[in-house]
Amino acid sequence: MSRVPIPASEVSRLKTLLGYEILDTPPEEGFDDLVRLASMVCGTPIALISLVDSKRQWFKARVGLDATETPREMAFCAHAICTVDMLVVPDTTRDERFSANPLVTDAPNIRFYAGMPLIAPDGEALGTICAIDRVPRQITAEQRSALECISRQVVSQLELRRARAKMAAVLNEKIVLLNEVNHRVKNNLQILQSVIDMQSRRTADAAAVDALREVKSRVRSMALIHDTLYISNNVAHVKVAGFLKRLTRDLHAAYAGAEAQIEFAVSAEGIALPMKAAIPCGLIVNELVTNAFKYAFVGRTHGRINVAMTVLDGTVNLTVSDDGAGLAHAESNRTEASLGTTLVELLAAQLNGTFARPSEGKPGYSVSFPLPSAESDIQSY
Questions:
Q1: Given Cys at both, which of 59, 78, 112, 121 links 133, Cβ 3.0 to 4.6 Å?
Q2: Within the chain, which residues score under 50 in pLDDT?
Q3: What angle do helix axes 339-350 and 275-295 make, rounded to 10 degrees?
Q4: DSSP 359
């Protein structure tokens, strides 16, 4: 058995091979399919994807062979990787390089070998895709061409596998960072709400306490938006219906008295907004629903608040209405210049939209704004 040649670029070749982090990994369907294809195309009982390490050849995928690796000094593939061309040995017993090889003189009794090097994008040979038979034979031009094609597909699989691993690593880093950011933001918002609560308890002025409660409500809305984004499968977009239902439930718990029976109807099915639009919409709903609690049901324990979002002809319409008694009179009180009204107008402007108060034929407050220009900025699901 002749001495196994060593490629001139052995150090860099091994570095490239190890960079794929594939040695000793479990079987994978993509590679298994390629060796089955090689076996069928070449009509051989044995086909292998062989990767040549410093001391062995290891089989990523194999057909017709039980062994998972062999010593490098016995590897036909160790010879094949020293050239970019296919190594074809029609009869191993007549080739002085292999005639005394234990793989020839003993099981699996190799007589025919055809191995096409797996050439990485940097030019290094990682191993081979090879077809092996137990009888001497020749390889046809079509079979040679097929093995060359399969070798390129093996390398593509290796590249795809490495790309997926890199993406998974980057994603994991981002998840760790997201968890840390979520923890800090959540804690800071909770601290802010606690500070507001402490200040409220120390304040005797009823108007100041009311103002602090409104500030806390806005902070709570921002915390809810943050929480909704964090638990969502898609952190770029917020499913509006679920988000608004959570927001209105939270507002009901904060503002409705124990005896009040205020119902909510939320309609926004099938709409998902980007974070940059969901945050202003959430704050708008917070202001308008809070407004309804404060003014629409004075002296009443029953009522209904409707929150609806629709998309029509390229425009998003967000409406908040209620069945409060004396709407016109209540509206005259509610439309006085206030922080809440000013905030809604500013938020509508942030959305490049308009804010409209209740009027004849329009029983509720509404904000209309155009669909974001980027296709990905608003989605249906």
A1: 112
A2: 258, 326-330, 334-337, 375-381
A3: 160
A4: B
